[in-house]
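Troubleshooting entry. Yesterday's outputs looked truncated, so today I'm pasting the complete records for two proteins to confirm everything comes through intact. If either block looks cut off, that's the bug. Protein one:
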Amino acid sequence: MNIKMVAPCLLGTEGIVANELKRMDAENVAPENGRVFFSGDFNILARANICSRYSERILILMGSFKATSFEELFQGVKSLPWEQWIGKTDCFPVKGSSLNSKLASIPDCQKIIKKAVVERLKETYKISWFEETGENYQIQFLILKDNVQVMIDTTGQGLHKRGYRAVATEAPIKETLAAVMCDLSHVMSNHTVVDPCCGSGTILIEAALKALNIAPGLHRSFTSEFWSNIPNKVWDDEFQRAKDAVKTDCDFHGYGYDIDENAIELAKENARKAGVFNKITFEQRNIRDYTNIFERCSVICNPPYGERLLDIEQAQDLYKIMGEKFDKRQGHSYTIISPDEDFEYLFGRKADKRRKLYNGMIKCQVYMYFKN
């Protein structure tokens, strides 16, 4: 069965997600703003859920069409083959969003889409009542400039929920964004990675998972695991495939420092849960005391800034300290995310490369220094 799918992702990461899906043998990979379209069979659906480091979730694309009236929305949704997925007793709640479209009322769109699916299934199953006590098929919709996309969520909790971070520090970086920063830093199995303001350890844990080739979804479950129309063997095979791909002879090591003792304890606990505790050393240390003792290393960090923890003046002082401590040196690179447009001026030199990304709703730049 060839399934059309879409992977929503953080703005600015579409190319990274597309390349990742191609490496998984997905077909017809096509990145667009904030999402990547692709297709594949049940195995690709399961593989993308288990192995994607950068996607936010995996959705089945049921169909797309234009709608400027509720009647057009109703008919467009009703024409789609919902019975291919949803059974007589299954749950099918509806949620979604609308941007720059005539159909702007989310509650009204939810009701129309729900009604259209019900009418389609009534005709198919010849029943008038749906008890919705069975498997869960969360329907999602996006209406953008009057173009409607209707999808079914296969993931459940977002893919950034790896299962290792039950507790976090006050302003943690999202796991998917941390993984993207590790990708931009070209983290590999022989890398030494340092985060001098590591918080609850997310960047270093994601770096270790990448270096060891541990699939981020290896220790969690997904909504579609429990769907009767996907054979259990598919999930068994894909989980086993991910386990077989883990590298056991890996020279990677991470070093995390933070001024906050509680953050260090949290980071250690998270690393234990992620199965990478023996690959990361955490210590309580002020960034003012940072010294680069490694022959080669990649520094990757998400320093606290005005909109998160510190006031603007404190954050800017921190950037100046980082500029002094992160000196140009052969074999050393620095990848730093910040929303401050004056970062390069405060840091003391222009980045060799910049990448626009979002940390939550905050527009940021990833500043990369790798030339000596």
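Protein two, checking that the full record survives here as well:
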Amino acid sequence: MALKHAILAALREEEASGYELSKRFDVSVANFWPATPQQIYRELDRLEDDGLLAARLVEQSRRPNKRIFSLTADGRQELGRFIETPSRPTAIRDDLLVKVVALDDENAEAVAAAIRERLEQSEAKLGLYRRIRSAMLGDLDEAGYLRSTERVGDYLALMRGISFEEDNQAWCRSSLKVIAGRRTGVPG
């Protein structure tokens, strides 16, 4: 998948400026397709040049003018083609796992420190995802939300992000116990 498909999906229901789209990314697709604002702005220009997005200028009196982007018919067709294309299994590319593979008695503390850092990052992400989930649900429970929402996809993607971070934390904690157990001679 390219960033372009993530942007097309984010614009499928509602137009947005680059800034709004960047914020939308933070709360909807960042858990599976992170992108910096600079990457998003560059891709918006490419998608407009390719005819997949249309932009209109909105003049503002107290702020700089902004461009608002929306999907074109070609953009909707491209998103449809992408959706219909079979997905490939995810490949894990994680530098932490390379460090874990290289784990030995001499570097155990450095590897454990890297795992602890990942655990902290995961805890922060999970906290954010749970706050987003709470905001999405509002006063509803999950069943009520799923019955009433028009767009279930954002919620399902968010739940995958939550599950992913919960699994990351379980793996980190388990790995830290194993490393500590090897140092003390007590299996983790």
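Both blocks look complete. Sanity check on protein two: The longest strand covers residues 53-58.
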